[in-house]
Amino acid sequence: MAPEAEQLYPLSNSLVTPEQLTTTSSQLDGIPVELEQSLRFAGAQLTQTAGILLRLPQEIIAQAIVIFYRFYVGVEGGSFKINAVKDVSAASLYLVAKPSFHPQTTRSVLNVYAYLTSPSSPLRDPTKQLQQSRPDPESYYLSESVYIDVRSTLLQTEAIILRAIAFSTQVVTPHHLALTYLQTLGVLPSPPTAKSKALGKRTLAHLNTALFSPQLLYLTQQPPVLAVAAVYLAAREVGVKLSSEEWWEVFDVEREELGFVVVGLGSVEGWAREEREKWERRARMCPLTVAEVEEELKRGDDAAREAV
Q1: Of 153, 186, 258, 293, which alpha carbon lies 20 to 30 A from 123's?
Q2: How many other C-beta atoms lie within 10 A of the C-beta of residue 75?
Q3: pTM above 0.90, yes or no
Q4: H helices present in 104-193, as ranges
Q5: Which of 173, 176, 225, 218 is nearest to 200 (CA)?
Q6: Residues 25 and 75: beta-carbon distance below 8 Å
Q7: How far is residue 9's CA from residue 7's CA, in Å, rounded to a whole number?
Q8: Average pLDDT, whole number, for the chain?
């Protein structure tokens, strides 16, 4: 039994408990659940965008987003009121990339985050089409003294993350697993057809979408479940007929698990659109620093008093 368990270990992740999801340090510090979800989503978006600018593989970006999520769950995790979204996002990406084939220098990571959190970044103001004008380099230039300060913050935050997650940095992503399932089901012929290419792309797209799920699917479901759900949805969308039998059971996935994840994946697009429209109506972006979070909480308190 021991060798078999060791062989299966790489296909599993450490999952969070219901208690860790329902009670977090951020909530204990007075952050409303709605704002907490917005902060998580903003952090995932920031990490994804930074990873793209750093030309990192999607697997590393996905692992960094999962580490970012892990840090903020539970009463022993980090708090958005103490640990800034942008700092934890940067440290998560730096931490995950370090032992990979694509390590990043602290300066590269911090330069990218300086740009993404500057007024020149399209992430900073959803009401303006900033991409139509040239960015102002002075708005995101890091002087040597500023760089030393933010580098210290980056390394300190990395250490804080490692302590909070008990050095559990292993993250197995379902992307390669999903492609293996497609091959096992015989729907990825060689040479590939136009439909099989579309099927593969849609499967990977669903797995990337799952990274932004408010249900935190990567923290609550094992990789095989996510992979099966992505294959199931992609096959329906592309029009590829899979086995008439309950094929997901071959991959040790229950119907109830599959149904939950499929519903969750289907709701992400609408939820993300509502998030974007919410902050557009407020004419500001979701806070990324501790000071911005404090300001957002103050606005909420003032609105509550006016309502009374």
Answers
A1: 153
A2: 13
A3: yes
A4: 106-116, 144-164, 175-184
A5: 176
A6: yes
A7: 6
A8: 91
